[in-house]
Here is the input.
Amino acid sequence: MRLLLGLLACLLLAACSSSTPSTGDVRAGFSQNLPGLLELKDFKLEDGHNVGSDDKPVWVARYTATVAPRQPTFDIDTVEGDVRILKPVRAAGEAMSLYGSVRSTRSGDTWSHRFQSDGSSNPVIGRPRSDYGPDALVAGSPEAKALLAKMAHEKEQAR
Here is the structure.
């Protein structure tokens, strides 16, 4: 009898839990949508509720995600003599927050998730140094300083 009641309780819990997606499932969906440059550090859901029906649930919630670039990122500061000088944007592992909403719909036993970021949640991320080619230099580096000094000297000579 105890075994039967335990089995019945497990079945009831499984039936109830299928009406809402698990946080782990939503987190996994969000992580899969991130570009490879970013790593998911933390993910929280709040204010989740069903806007569909019991038969066809549509679960909507707010999310807050903390992400970080896997490597340093840069943007072009200037171009001098066909050489791009890059300014650092983000350090590897530097955390930034993203905010938005998720809309989850169930099809059979699986959930699909659609994420919509808030308009105010658009942090500047930059791009990896390798995206700029091997000749790009980082501003403030000895190579960049030498190039800028050489170019300044050439301009002075041309006058």
Summary: The chain has a mean pLDDT of 87. The CA atoms of residues 11 and 17 lie 10 Å apart. Residues 142-158 form the longest helix (17 residues).
